[in-house]
Design brief:
The structure is a homodimer of 344-residue chains. Chain A contains 13 helices and twelve strands. The first copy, chain A, has 344 residues and is of the alpha/beta class. In chain A, strands 3-2-1-4-12-11-5 form a seven-stranded mixed sheet, with helices on both faces. A five-stranded mixed sheet of chain A has the order 6-7-10-8-9, sandwiched between helices. The longest helix of chain A has 26 residues. Chains A and B meet through helix 8, helix 9 and helix 10 of A and helix 8, helix 9 and helix 10 of B.
């Protein structure tokens, strides 16, 4: 039985969507137990709407809620909040394996680093979403916003963390790693990219294929794309914006005339497939990699299905043994060389 | 009569696409004259396929061709190349107003800075494409790859250069300027963003609306997005990749079954509209802003229509008086304050 904490009050649609998602996850996977954090009475009321195995649900009364725009490092001091309180429980109780939240990204990152803590040897935790790609699989983009300013050693570790996730979470045996850059040639990029390229080429445990461009995240032949949190965030949100625009315009054009409406009736299934194939939430949330336990940050706008996916994802990753895999990978590299160079 | 140089041998589809595009532009706008650079005999052979006003075409024999992967700063020393030779002509002949090339981006930037030269006071030239947005207009993204490493003063100037382009090229009276960042709050971003935010807020001639995210390039309510060339490039290519994926999957789904194929017959026009609305080439190429004359960098994969659009765009921008507009804007700012601060 895998025990997973869920921030029942995190996200724009909480707590109704989070509870609905929790119940869906419980009913699908009989080998998980969920610990729901938040206002006890509200959670009880929401739960009463559904049928589920009550033995596998526990409510932890944490009535304070961190808002999306609260200052993260201050907010996580509030131990009675559904997010920070969950982190303390995750830290202190050995039999709890994972935490899922759709709450403030900043608070999730700050709580992960400051309350739960990082795996020994990891310089910084990184936010790593799985992005649908043209091969019908995913590309892991790491980091996507946890660290706006990075050193080469951090990017090298992101490569390793995301490779471990690709293996454990998606069964990719020898994940191909690309460095996000403004061109594919080896001499491209700023000082950070040039240094990182040098070290990535020498690392033992990763399959580095060289520089990749923004378009390669969705189109290219690579499983992991390594980025500093600033440009990774720009890439992720630019893709989200473009995807939303394309789908929005498609809807608009369909509504624009009788012929198009008739066409839509016939194409409905094809368009549904299309939507599913570029659905960023299909694979659950972004992983917070490098922490001592599994933490999944679901999108702030997550609906019940996305929450259920994030819980299923957390369970799968715990079963796959992500943390031991990362520890093993870390031990196989010569970090002193990178740190004693100009990597640090 | 506006005289425009065209690099007839620049781009993946040159010279057939460039010559076809040149003829289309000539036939559409009777008030332009084109100077075609490249191998004279090949250009003559291509031109012989079409009917056009021969009085408004001149061929300049420059038989050397710069390849996409030549090292830019070396390549532009080759004065007999269709690209570098064109830049020398642009520099030396007062009556030539603009240059259009679909050749190597690196060489186009290097030639612009080192042969043609910048407008007095401009620190660096910037690459600025017009990206289709949800409002049915464009968002100008500046810089998109000319400068991988930037100082705050450069970003402040990009804001001003692109605002001038928005006014002259798209008739936007008081263009809204956003700073590309990993969040919209004022405290977001790395040191470069924090410094730049401070200076942008104080500038006279721009309408700064604050930080914007990657998604705002296509979805947001802003006309100009300012970025360093590294993250601007990541944003642009990420959007291109996502757009290509969405359209590619749509085509695939349409082919996937009989019902979808029938639907397609009815939706053909709507889908064509959709394609046109997210066509990155519709507005011509990217402008190389900050140079002494108008330079348009068309996409390397430009077909005839894109080349014709780029030529029309160059003519429109010359007529609108981009260079004097930039000179006027530059004179209205207190650059010493930015440079004496930590902007430089």
């Amino acid at each position: 039985m895998i025990k997973i904490l869920l921030d029942a009050f995190g996200g724009d649609n909480a707590p109704s969507a989070t509870i609905e998602g929790a119940v869906a996850a419980l009913n699908k996977d009989k080998d998980i137990k969920l610990l729901l954090t938040g206002k006890q009475d509200t959670i009880e009321k929401e739960l009463a709407k559904y049928r589920y195995d009550e033995q596998r649900v526990e409510i932890i009364n944490l009535p304070d809620v961190i808002a999306m725009d609260d200052i993260a490092t201050e907010a996580i001091k509030r131990r009675q909040s559904s997010l920070a309180g969950a982190y303390w429980k995750l830290k202190n109780e050995d039999d709890i394996s994972a935490f899922v939240t759709a709450g403030s990204t900043g608070a999730a990152i700050a709580g992960g680093q400051l309350i739960l803590g990082r795996i020994r040897g990891v310089k910084r935790a990184a936010l790593c979403p799985a992005i649908p790609n043209i091969r019908g699989g995913v590309t892991l983009l790491c980091d996507c916003g946890a660290n706006a300013e990075c050193k080469p050693v951090m990017l090298c570790q992101f490569a390793l963390l995301a490779s471990a996730y690709a293996k454990v979470g998606f069964g990719i045996k020898n994940p191909k790693v690309g460095l996000l850059n403004n061109g594919t040639e080896a001499h491209k990029g700023d000082t950070l990219r040039l240094e990182t390229f040098k070290y990535l080429s020498k690392m033992n445990g990763i399959n580095f294929i060289g520089n990749v461009e923004g378009r390669d995240i969705m189109l290219g032949d690579c499983d992991v794309v390594v980025a500093d949190g600033f440009s990774g965030n720009i890439a992720l949100k630019s893709m989200e914006g473009c995807g939303k625009l394309a789908l929005g315009l498609l809807k608009e054009e369909i509504k624009s005339g009788v012929r198009a409406k008739i066409g839509y009736v016939f194409m409905k299934k094809a368009l549904k497939n299309l939507y599913a194939r570029i659905d960023f939430d299909k694979y659950g949330g972004a992983l917070l990699l490098g922490l001592k336990k599994v933490v999944v940050k679901s999108h702030g706008s997550s609906k019940a299905a996305a929450i259920a996916n994030s819980i299923a994802q957390a369970a799968a990753i715990c079963r796959g043994g992500l943390v031991p895999q990362i520890e093993k990978s870390l031990a196989g590299e010569n970090w002193d060389e990178i740190i004693d160079g100009d990597g640090q």
